[in-house]
Amino acid sequence: MLKHPFLNIPYNPQLSVLLRGIEIYDREHTLGEELQEYNPNDIEDREKIINLYILPALNYLSYRHKFTLLEKLKTELKNENTDFSALFESDYDDPKTIAWDEADIINARGFFERILSNAEIIWHEELKKAASEDQSEW
Q1: CA gyration radius, the chain
Q2: Are 120 and 70 in contact (CB under 8 A)?
Q3: Rounded to an integer, what distance in angstroms lies between the CA atom of residue 76 and that of residue 85?
């Protein structure tokens, strides 16, 4: 069974982890200001956000964790009822604040589709390695 990267519990991937690279709580005047230079709805800016902030923030994950996370994302993208905009919502009782809130993202599902597409390219070798293994033995 695949364990959480830092805990001795089973790994249960959460889509919210995909936005960790753009969490700005307590970094509003550094990362927050940096990210405000980008428009998450602009195709070119979205590519930069994903490739410079989102995917690098997940480099702590092993190839198996990346594979499992993307499989979860693929499943949720197939589910028409998944509300991707909810992942951008601010919960002021939770110290995570995303650089843009749900009202700023015109197509949240498209944002996550692009994360998947870019991750499949950038992590290609790692995903290929994980796919070639028997996941039941993790």
Answers
A1: 15
A2: yes
A3: 13
Whole-number Cα distances in Å, 90 to 21, 39, 44, 85, 101: 15, 18, 25, 11, 6
Show pLDDT as tens, one digit a residue, over the chain (138 residues): 899 988 889 999 999 999 999 999 889 899 999 999 999 999 999 999 999 999 999 999 999 999 999 999 999 999 999 999 999 987 666 656 899 989 899 999 999 999 999 999 999 999 999 999 999 889
CA-based nearest residue to 88, from 29, 37, 40: 40
